[in-house]
Amino acid sequence: MEQKDIFQEIATDRMTPGERQGEVRPLPLPQRYLQEKAGSFPEKVWFGNRIPFRERLEDFYAKLEEMRRQYAPFMENKIPFVDTCTQTVELEHFQFRYQEKGERFTRGCVRTRAGRK
């Protein structure tokens, strides 16, 4: 008795013979274009009084300094230093090879199924 692949069955049963032949063409899209409307955008855009760049820059730095003073208590580093015992090794050269079938690269204790080393 031959077992049928369930996915093959789904693929072959869902399409009628007429659908299998030829490509399926996409539906035509309607031709829609943007149209200009009266009053959609104001004729003149008002930017207010133009302040010279130097004045704006000075104002920016003054406000920045004010905010630094205001938020200084929240920006203090109050976390104590914790030594993570992380060791760093500088690699100057190394040898590379692909992992072979059945090999395992692990760190620390390696246990077998019986629970022994």
What is the radius of gyration computed over CA atoms, rounded to a whole number of angstroms? 36 Å
The computed structural class is mainly alpha
State mean pLDDT (0 to 100 scale).
76
User: In what range is the share of β-strand residues?
Assistant: under 5%
User: Which percent range fits the helix content?
Assistant: 25-40%
* Number of helical elements: 3
Following the backbone from N to C, one meets helices and strands in this order, namely HHH
What distance lies between the first and last C-alpha atoms, to the nearest angstrom? 47 Å
The best one-word shape is flat
The stretches of 5 or more residues where confidence is low (pLDDT under 50) are: none
Which sheet architecture does the biggest sheet show? none
Instruction: Write down how many β-strands occur, each being a DSSP E stretch of 2 or more residues.
Output: 0
Oligomer: single chain
